[in-house]
Amino acid sequence: MTRLNIQQGSSRHSAYDLRDPYADVIETHTLALLVDNESGVLARVIGLFSGRGYNIESLTVAEVDHQGHRSRITIVTRGTPQVIEQIKAQLDRMVPVHEVHDLTVEGPSVERELALLKVAGKGDQRVEALRLADIFRANVVDSTLESFVFEITGTGEKIDAFAELMRPLGLREIARTGVAALARGM
């Protein structure tokens, strides 16, 4: 006969322990909302996050249907699975919100971000910055004798890697758009 360890604080799990072992796992999710393009909608959506202490890691908004006056909001947020479900349910109940999609769980999706990076440098640093930009397929969109402005599109990880390589070469400023995402296929 085996004994089950059901002491409080025990790191072992018992058959009687009904707590979800994944309840405190923090996940990153990309949510896509189709909303009415009218004043105050974005403030209401953001208010839902800030009012409950949820963090927004990335936020993009643009009108996608001029005739129907609809906008698409793409939000990247982090939380436990329960928190993510709560966010989706609360967003879905909002009147100006027509659709809520969790692209992270609905299947494969494409996510991209645009960034502009200003890099100042002379001599070998300029040559190295141009060489790395070529490897990362970044475009030079502005050039002076003292600096470059690079435009790069890709995943957040790609942009982070490019920025880290540019830092010792004279990275001065970064502007990022945030994530734009679409589900793949039909």
Automatic annotation (TrEMBL):
Gene3D superfamilies: 3.30.70.260, ACT-like. Chain A, domain 2. Its EC number is 2.2.1.6. NCBIfam families: acolac_sm, PRK11895.1. The keyword Transferase applies. PANTHER family: ACETOLACTATE SYNTHASE SMALL SUBUNIT, ACETOLACTATE SYNTHASE SMALL SUBUNIT 1, CHLOROPLASTIC. Residues 30-105 form the ACT domain. Dimer of large and small chains. It catalyses: 2 pyruvate + H(+) = (2S)-2-acetolactate + CO2. Pathway: Amino-acid biosynthesis; L-isoleucine biosynthesis; L-isoleucine from 2-oxobutanoate: step 1/4; Amino-acid biosynthesis; L-valine biosynthesis; L-valine from pyruvate: step 1/4. It is an enzyme of class 2 (transferase). It comes from Plastorhodobacter daqingensis. It holds the Pfam family ACT_AHAS_ss. Keywords: Amino-acid biosynthesis, Branched-chain amino acid biosynthesis, Transferase. This is Acetolactate synthase small subunit. GO terms for molecular function: acetolactate synthase activity. Belongs to the acetolactate synthase small subunit family.
